[in-house]
Design brief:
single chain; binds ligand C2E; Alpha-Beta Plaits; binds magnesium ion; TIM Barrel
């Protein structure tokens, strides 16, 4: 099959069912072959039977003719012999006729005066003067023909029966063959087609990609693109299985409609589609993939509005690889990058991604060892009140010191741990350690970061309940930090989980607000107590006056919604002054303190030792951050 076949019904708005690829594996050929083999056989049998019949009939006739000739000959000889004895046979007595009869072998021999009109089976009796004085007639005997005449009806009947049986057998065979062909078609459909949408599946896409690569012209590129839906869980929970099928059927129809002919669209997994594009240049490929991505991401109405935010990664031949495997692997890498950069993007493969990938592979391998060897630690970064700059809490931050690579930042390994399914273990470790440490620091709250993977896991609530009981820390002194990622991917589950967590008495903070899509509606819909404005805004303060205006607006809004607003990443005194004026409640950043080991925080709590500073000298001189008054108030 060529690509145009896969997309032949693309223009249709029908929920088009499967294009079928009969030719591809020769479905129906078995049926035709059997019939082709049997039909001439049946004809041959019938023809041979007829031929044998006709031949037998001819032989029988010939045998009878020669039998008759011999009898006539014998009669003639017998008459001559008899005439030699008694020349006047006119008054021959019946005994002489019986003698002739037995001598000639002719049955029913009679002597008559006139021959029956038109009779062939007669012989004249001539007297001494040469006159015909009578005629011998007899009953013609044709035994072979008679035998054939006797056999013929039986043979014809047998043949008719045989023929009827053959017809019935053929019909049954045909029905059976068509059943077999149907089953083969079904097997083929299941093997090469997605059951829900009728689109080609992964196997088919592989075939098409391989074929396209084999046929690629010098002035052509062949691209493999992978599209990940994102938000699949939301679809599941919101509309159930039947609705989900409707959504995917609609997505498939859109793709058939929007994507130009010659492009193969496949459904690879529940929430992943793939494209094989042949185009003259990269620009054209990107346009096609973006059309497909945008089509998938448009809102769909199934009882309610369902919307996903699809990302796409692509790799193309000859630039990124020559084989299907290479292109798929690299398109997958590009897709991972697209998802990491924030959803809704189309990303092309680039060689650095492979380096990142190898790095991630290394980290994943080492993570497993580090978990087994318990090589992780938790550091704490103080959080200060905006007004008096007293320490009111700490944020627990995971630390990993690798024996060879040294400190590996959480921004690198947390994502790998999430992908590798290791975040549950790491998250549980941080929660246990942070709450146990926090329990010893009565004046402070302890904030713990939760990964989206942990929030999705319903066991998180039990874990928190258990750790709260174990450590005996007051839940009011525990803040759980959640990033927007979890809300975008699956708001419904997130909402349920956050409410369950909050019922245990802990507080919830929306972390890194402003770094991603930042929908203000989350703040309204979800039970947050605290808003942590991303440090990106603070860094932007130095470059743009607008950043200040935006921060001001977010702070005002957050406070109006009754949230405590914290700004992260404050590094200079100028920033602190501006942000304090903006009206935020709490601050965190190197200006006040860098993350430090539990013992340092311990000493700080016990003896009021100065915080571990990280601010540039100028900022320190201006703001004298070393004079922070830890634990002045009785924050609880
Ligand atoms: P985050 O939760 O926003 O944590 C704040 C990050 O900003 C920390 O980086 C902190 O060291 C850094 N930071 C604080 N003040 C300043 C400043 O003034 N300037 C600059 N440039 N940076 C500042 P860190 O420890 O590298 O953590 C990075 C991210 O990794 C965290 O961002 C958090 O998303 C994640 N993370 C760290 N620990 C955990 C954990 O235990 N669990 C989970 N799920 N994620 C964690
Ligand atoms: Mg945080
Ligand atoms: Mg943050």
């Amino acid at each position: 099959m060529d690509l145009s076949e896969a997309t032949a019904n693309r223009g249709s708005t029908q929920p088009a069912r499967a294009p079928r690829w009969r030719g591809a594996i020769g479905i129906g050929r078995g049926e035709t072959a059997i019939l082709k083999m049997l039909s001439p056989l049946a004809i041959l049998v019938v023809a041979a039977t007829l031929l044998c019949g006709a031949f037998g009939f001819l032989l029988a006739r010939q045998a009878d003719d020669s039998f008759e000739r011999a009898n006539r000959q014998a009669l003639r000889g017998a008459i001559e012999a008899l005439q030699a004895l008694s020349p006047d046979l006119v008054n021959v007595d019946p005994n002489a006729v019986r003698i002739l009869e037995s001598a000639s072998g002719l049955k029913g021999l009679r002597l008559v005066e006139d021959p029956p009109p038109g009779a062939r089976d007669v012989h004249s009796l001539i007297d001494a003067k040469g006159r015909i004085v009578g005629w011998f007639t007899w009953e013609v005997e044709r035994p072979a023909t008679a035998m054939i005449a006797q056999i013929l009806p039986v043979a014809v009947l047998a043949m008719l029966l045989l023929f009827g049986f053959a017809v019935l057998a053929m019909r049954q065979l045909r029905r059976f063959a068509s059943l077999v062909a149907d089953s083969m078609r079904e097997v083929h459909r299941l093997a090469f087609e997605d059951a829900d949408t009728g689109l080609p599946n992964l196997h088919r896409m592989r075939e098409v990609a391989e074929q396209a690569l084999a046929e690629r012209q010098p002035n052509e590129v062949v691209a493999v693109a992978l599209i990940d839906l994102g938000g699949r869980d939301e679809i599941d929970e919101a509309i159930g299985e039947a609705g989900e099928r409707e959504v995917f059927t609609e997505i498939a129809n859109r793709l058939r409609r929007d994507v130009p002919a010659g492009v193969t669209i496949a459904r690879l997994r529940d929430d992943a589609f793939g494209l094989v594009v042949r185009a003259p240049d990269v620009g054209r490929v990107l346009a096609v993939v973006e059309v497909a991505r945008a089509g998938i991401s448009r809102a769909i109405w199934v009882d309610r509005v369902v919307q996903v935010n699809a990302s796409a990664g692509l790799a193309l031949a000859p630039r990124d690889g020559a084989t299907r495997e290479e292109l798929t692997r690299r398109a997958n890498l590009a897709l991972l990058v697209a998802k990491q950069r924030g959803r809704g993007l189309v990303v092309q493969f680039s060689p650095e991604m492979e380096g990142d990938f190898d790095d991630r592979r290394f980290i994943k391998r080492e993570l497993l060892r580090a978990i087994a060897a318990r090589s992780f630690d938790v550091h704490y970064q103080p959080i200060v009140s905006a007004d008096h700059r007293r320490v009111v809490g700490v944020e627990a931050l995971l630390r990993w010191h690798h024996p060879v690579r040294g400190a590996i930042p959480p921004s690198l390994f947390v994502r790998v741990a999430e992908e590798a399914g290791l975040m549950d273990q790491l998250g549980a470790f941080v929660l246990r350690r942070a709450l146990a440490d926090g329990a010893r620091w009565p004046g402070l709250y302890v904030a713990v970061n939760l990964s989206p993977v942990q929030v999705r896991d319903r066991r998180l609530v039990d874990l928190l309940r258990e750790v709260l009981a174990e450590t005996k820390i007051s839940p009011a002194r525990v803040v759980l930090e959640i990033t927007e990622g979890v809300l975008i991917d699956d708001p419904a589950t997130a909402k349920v989980r956050l409410e369950e967590l909050r019922r245990l008495g802990v507080r919830l903070a929306l972390d890194d607000f402003g770094s991603g899509y930042s929908s203000l509606s989350y703040l309204q819909r979800l039970p947050f107590d605290m808003l942590k404005i991303d440090r990106g805004f603070v860094a932007a303060l130095d470059q743009s006056a607008n950043a200040g205006v935006i921060i001001q607006a977010i702070v005002t809004l957050g406070r109006a919604l009754g949230l405590s607003v914290l700004i992260e990443g404050i590094e200079t005194e100028e920033q602190r002054v501006v942000l304090r004026l903006a009206g935020c409640n709490e601050m965190q950043g190197y200006l006040f303190a860098k993350p430090a080991a539990a013992e340092i925080i311990e000493r700080l709590v016990a003896n009021g030792e100065p915080l571990p500073l990280m601010a540039p000298p100028a900022a320190q001189a201006k703001g004298r951050p070393g004079r922070l008054e830890p634990f002045e108030g009785k924050a609880s």
